[in-house]
Amino acid sequence: MNPNNYLALAAILFTIGAFGVLVRRNAIIVFMSVEMMLNAANLAFVSAAHTTGTLDGQIAAFFVMVVAAAEVVVGLAIIVTIFRTRRSASIDEASLLKY
Amino acid sequence: MTGEKLVFWITAIFAVIGAVGMVISRKAVHSALWVAFTMVNLAVLYFSLEAPFLGTTQIVVYTGAVMMLFLFVLMIVGVDSSDSLLETIKGQRVLATLFALAFGGLLVCSITSGIAPVAVTLSGAEADAGGNLQALAKPVFGNYILAFEVTSALLITAVIAAMILAHRETWKPRKTQDELQRERTLTGHPTPLPTPGVMARHNSVDTPALLPDGTISEISLPAAFRSTGEVEAETPEVTK
Amino acid sequence: MTAALIGLPLFGAAVLLLGGRRTNAWGHFLAVLMSASSFFVGVALFTQMIGRPTESRAVHQHLFDWISVGSFKVPFDLQVDQLSMVFVLLITGVGTLIHIYSIGYMEHDENRRRFFAYLNLFVAAMLLLVLADNYLLLYVGWEGVGLASYLLISFYQHKPSAAAAGKKAFVVNRVGDVGLSIAVMLMVTTFGTVTFSGVASAAGSATHSQITWIGLALLLAACGKSAQFPLQSWLLDAMEGPTPVSALIHAATMVTAGVYLITRAHAIFDLSSTARTAVVTIGAITLLMGAYIGTAKDDIKKGLAGSTMSQIGYMILAAGLGPVGYVFAIFHLLTHGLFKAGLFLGAGSVMHGMHDDVNMRHYGALRTSLKITYVTFGLGYLAILGVPPFAGFWSKDEIIRVAFEQNFWIGMCTLIGAGVTAFYMTRMMAMTFFGEARWEKGVHPHESPLVMTAPMMILAIGSVFGGLLLKFVGNIEGWLEPVTGFGVGQNGGIAGKVLMPATLGVIALGAFYGWTKYGRRPVPVVAPSDVSIFTRAARADVYGDALNEAVFMRPGQYLTRALVWFDSKAVDGTIGALSAAIGGLSARGRRIQNGYARSYALSMLGGAVLIAFVLLLVRL
């Protein structure tokens, strides 16, 4: 079993997540795509741990999960606050910094 | 075809399908469900990569807590809110597809062009500590204790932040029931507002109640949903 | 004491210019006083000089070290030798007389104080010019008189013609000044020194071409200052200034500075026959040109200006003949200074009586109304003609003689010039003082006051006796010989016995012709327009102005216009295009910032793709 397969899978998942960030307008779906990218990174860490035979990769993945959870909390709170004032969840609405 | 290989290929394909499904779905809730699907598949992969603790944590924390949080917020924001298919920024879709393909291609190329490493099982390392969990715990509370403490502070901060951000300030004292009733009597609608339409199929807060002639009763919706144009009247098919 | 010569008029100029209107009441007296004191100092120095033996007649006074750079030193020194002495007496003497004359002439002008300030300034600058002991200090005085000339020509500032004339004089003089500065520079590089004595002793060590170039440059300078061809166009326009200015500057002193320069630099000219030939040619051309122009001028001052141009041509010609001629050039300079100043002052007196009208066609029969002016003018007329024993005869005849000894054709030029001089001067006399009165309505000619006629009388005495005094009592040739050298030319060619009667005959012929044309026949009040091509050419100053305009002014104008166009289109256009390009680029560029987070994310992904690509490239 070629460990590179796992990395390739992680790369594909990451790409799809990036594509989702760029294409979707709904803020929550964009957020979910970001979570997808984080998961892809986690997969890469775990697969690297499996490859090298040490557990550092798993520890890193563990911390990533913690931070991602905290990030989701704050990010969603922000989205809710913005939604309350603007009545819209589209990220294209926040374009006041244009030239 | 070893067991690991089989598991890998099946879960990998499902994971990719789930990711693509997330990106393509029109409705936000469907998107969330596809994400959850992908995460479960990844958890299975973690199990096959000799990381049982991580796999469990993935399901419990990510799929269980994080995705549920997403769904709650979707509920607040509007379940039916969906993106229109028209792309407003010129060239965004074309370029995004191009760049994404290029990026993915480059990554996969660089990964596969290296020498294939030989996997080393982790049981050796684990046996030292006495199991996967113990082997994980030893460094976390040993070498990486600082990171651990910092992340715990981060979590606390996040909780406080969420509380503050989501808090709604009340500027005036809440109206007592007595006052509310007086207002209602004076303005001409003495009864409480109708609850949202509760039907067998929909129990979300944005489904309006119907008037006798089949039109939507605007006042049955919370203020947030009135005349946003996103609510459709659901005609009951029951009486046909 | 030598410095006092310059210091006194300079002090007067400073007081009058800095004092301003407060000095209006007594300004002119101060100026006359300063000029007269300078004259007396000069006389004192002269008496001292006569008392000394010939070898020690030159006096040197060191004032201060002016320029001292490495081995190049130029001291601010004054030198009084025989040559500068005669100039000093001429400048201060005639200058003082003209100062006195101006008290009366400028009586009704409210800017009289300023006039006297400039006159004093001029006297100071001219004295510096002749008293300098090196070419650089001479240049300072040279510039100073140019400045004073400009200020005085355009004295009537409110008249555009006067302002234009002043500018023209200055610009044309500048062209000549370039010649002098080039000459000084060449002297520095060739000899390493600019003092008269230094140059004279080192002159033998330079190559022939170097000497010739220095000589030609000095000639250019002299042409500018002395209004010789080709820089003659400013002198006739300079008559816009008040008449005392024309008398002092443009007859007696400033225009003779060119002759002084050539005579001073005789060490250079002695060694280069090419330069000498150039000088003689220029002198001959101008001699004839000035006389020719003078014949057709109806403006009395312009006629006298043409005469000045011609007489200086004589002096330049004589100076160009080498050691045989320097002495006579200076001799003629002195006599000319006396009688031409007298003629100009007389013209001023006539103008004063005729309500400032300069047109001779409005004169006529003035000998009864302006008796003193008539007599003084007449004596000056006889002097300029060269009638013996008046002043001009002694100097001009010597020049004619020396010219014939050198070259027959040069001599013929001088002879013809004498004849034409007689013609136009007789014309002037006839039109002004004889014939019928052609006065305008309301003009009552009256004699000028004593303050004006007294200087005229003194100068008339000089016109009569000046030549005799200088030649026999003063021994002008012997006096100047230690400075300029004096060679007795070969007496070959046309013998002296034939020459004098021939000259007198030519003069008589010219005078007779002038008398018949203008004295016998009535003079039309309006200048006739159907005249021959020669008259038209003379009226147009032999097309000197037209030539200058076509050759220098128009191309210069086109060049400046082209440069301005180039500057605004090419230079400014380049800058403007650059800024417009940057502006346009940034206007386009800023549209990248469209405010959408998704496009920013897109560019981030693009960057990531680039980095991944580069890493892959490097690793492969």
Question: Describe it for me?
Answer:
The complex is a heterotrimer of chains A (99), B (240) and C (620). Chain A has 99 residues and is mostly helical. Chain A has three helices and no strands. Chain A has helices spanning 4-23, 27-52, 56-86. The radius of gyration of chain A is 17 Å and the shape is elongated. In chain A, 58% of the residues are buried. Chain B is mainly α and 240 residues long. Chain B has helices at residues 3-24, 28-48, 52-77, 92-112, 123-129, 132-140, 145-166, 177-187; strands spanning 209-210, 216-217. In chain B, strand 1 (209-210) and strand 2 form a beta hairpin. The longest helix of chain B has 26 residues, at 52-77. By secondary structure, chain C is mostly helical. Helix content of chain C is 73%, strand content 3%. Chain C is built from 24 helices and two strands. In chain C, strands 1-2 form a two-stranded antiparallel sheet. In chain C, a hairpin with a 2-residue loop joins strand 1 (59-69) and strand 2 (72-80). In chain C, helix 2 runs antiparallel to helix 3 and helix 16 (371-385) packs parallel to helix 19. Chain C is globular, with a radius of gyration of 31 Å. The relative contact order of chain C is 0.07. Chains A and B meet through helix 1, helix 2 and helix 3 of A and helix 1, helix 2, helix 3, helix 4 and helix 5 of B.
